Amino acid sequence: MNQPVVFFPINQREQAVQASAEVLLALDVYKKLADIVREATDLAQRAREQGVQSEDVNQHRAHTAVLIDGLRGTGKSSVLVNMAKYLGQRDPGLEKRVHFLNPLDPTLLETTDDLFLNEIVAGLVSDEAIQAARQAGDEKANFFHEQLQRLGNTLERLESQRDLRGLDKLRAFMGNQHLAQEVHLVFKAGLDLLGKQLLVLPIDDVDTSLDRAFDNLEVIRKYLVSPYVLPVISGDLDLYNDLSWRHFHGRLLKDSNADSADAVARAKDLAQEYQRKILPLQYRIEMPEVLHYLRSPLIGFYDEDQKPVPEITMAHFYSWLEAVLNERTNGSENSYLQPPVKNMRSLAQLVGGHPAMSPENLYFRRSESGIDDPKKDPIVMLRQGAERTPQFDKKLNLIIDHDSDDELRFMHVLQDHLLETYRLGGLTIETNPTSNLYIARLGTYAEHPIFRWSPPDALLLLAGAQYNQYGLRQGPIAVTINTDDPGIMPTTLRTEFSLVAAAGRGLHPSAGVEQWLNAIKQHGNALFQQNHHAIWTTPPHA
User: Fold this and answer.
1) How far apart are CA 94 and CA 333, in angstroms?
2) Out of 192, 294, 302, 493, which could bridge 7 as a Cys pair, Cβ 3.0 to 4.6 Å?
3) Burial label, 145 (beta-carbon count in 10 A; 0-12, 13-18, 19+)
4) DSSP string, 179-218
5) What pTM value is reported for the model?
6) What are the tens digits of pLDDT across the range 161-192?
7) For 461-520, how does the pLDDT look when each residue is reduced to its tens digit (9 = 90+)?
8) Cα–Cα distance between 240 and 277 in angstroms, integer?
């Protein structure tokens, strides 16, 4: 059985910031993001090596903004605030070359603020590391201050140009042409001050403030084009698309309503190309849906002491939720109730919102379901661990016992001995994969013991091999693949064979899985023909 590689804290309130990388669930997202950060860091280093040309943003202008795409509550904000923590624990060498600014929230802009760029600059200046480095008062700190002053003057002219006339207005427009250059130089001066190579600028919920969303995207398009800064934006790409095409549509029809249908099509095409420009496809990372986590056997749980809860995974938790909601239904005719876990936010609130929803308590409640006897015997929960005295939880009426490694080895030897004894006796083991999966503590079909009893790859039964570690077995035991009562487990033989086939190809890609399954079918059919007794007979013709 695969061991969990990340853990979900049971008793932690819903929050974005996490204590360690062990509880960061979206591993694939962090890995992709780390690759992009590494690429951007190398690009920034090459730009700096160009000497004088590194001062000119036009020599390096490119749109490299990363989009963390997902619906509300999928954990996008958590990725933004924990990026540095992930790199610090998984790639400390890269983390030392990069400085992560605190996430910016465009919704915090006051109604009097015309430009999101003001908040970006303020986020840079107020950064703790920047402030500490400026206290040194050395040449780099002075240069950063001077460059910041030049940028401030340019921003001031930009905001006042509406009220200017004549040459003053012309000078303001000329200053605007250099605004991206001044932003570029401020980022470079900030990196020099910190001794870093790349600034990562997380921007959270660009799309939340609907009346400003397009303007905020325009700031990213115009000014965040320096190789020294990597914008990482969280948001919903579909919502960006809606906001963008409606903006273009409004501009197209500002003075006329003619050809409005054509205008919609053109606006949507413009919006798609606009997004392709400022949010390149190769830098878009999609957040997994919550079912990706719920069905994963690689996600475990941390208890209140931040220790792993043995033998309980997120896949078990989801199975228990399904069982609580659908225990006496077969899923037919819309009788299946989907667990009401819409996103990661609702999952965190479900698990951490009430002690009764901890996996251990849920296991207890699932097991007692339908039992009305108040004097019922206690439930025994077995876990793997060192030998110790069984613990009794009076409140839950639960006995927790442990099987040591020696005990598990003994069980393994005994099972191999009995499998060989049954094989020699000509017995066949009947399997009902879906039923077995739900009743036993199995996370996936690949964990079903049919692959141990009769593996597709005969080499795995050689003495000392994976399924014959003690050399007691001389061959596979006969098996069949069947279905349970369809009123309880809504499945068919075709489905069962398909599920086992998919699991077998994943476990043994080079083995003849189809031939193995055909042999199992033939054996099952032969047993049926051998043991079937007809109840109805056709009367002879008169």
Assistant:
1) 54
2) 302
3) middle
4) HHHHHHHHHHHHHHHHT-SEEEEEE--TTTSTTTHHHHHH
5) 0.60
6) 555 554 555 455 555 567 888 889 999 999 99
7) 999 999 999 999 999 999 999 987 766 677 888 889 999 999 999 888 877 899 999 999
8) 13
Q: Read off φ and ψ for residue 200, nearest 5 degrees.
A: -105, 120
Answer yes or no: are the C-beta atoms of 288 and 28 closer than 8 Å. Answer: yes
444 vs 441: CA distance, rounded Å: 9
> Cβ distance 73 to 342 under 8 Å?
yes
Distance CA 264, CA 273 (A): 14
Quickly list H helices, 279-373. 290-294, 314-326, 344-352, 359-368
Half-sphere exposure of 502 (CA within 13 A, CB side): 8
Dist. CA 52–CA 34, nearest whole Å? 29
Would strands 391-393 and 398-403 be described as parallel, antiparallel, or unpaired? antiparallel
| Residue 534 Cα distances to 48, 191, 437, 528, 529, angstroms | 85, 85, 32, 11, 10
Tokens read off for 57: 């943003």
Q: In terms of residues, how long is the chain?
A: 542
The 8 Å CB, 24+ separation contacts for 116-119 are: 116/212, 116/215, 116/216, 116/219, 117/155, 117/179, 117/183, 117/219, 117/223, 118/155
Pull the structure tokens for residue 23. 């509880």
- φ, ψ of residue 403 in degrees (nearest 5): -105, 125
Residue indicated by tokens 């990372």? 285
92 touches 254 (CB < 8 A): no
In single-letter form, the type of residue at position 74 comes to T
Task: Tell me the pLDDT of the chain averaged across its residues.
Answer: 81
| C-alpha closest to that of 232 among 65, 86, 94, 391 | 65
Separation CA 382–CA 400 (nearest Å): 6
pLDDT given for residue 180 in this prediction: 85
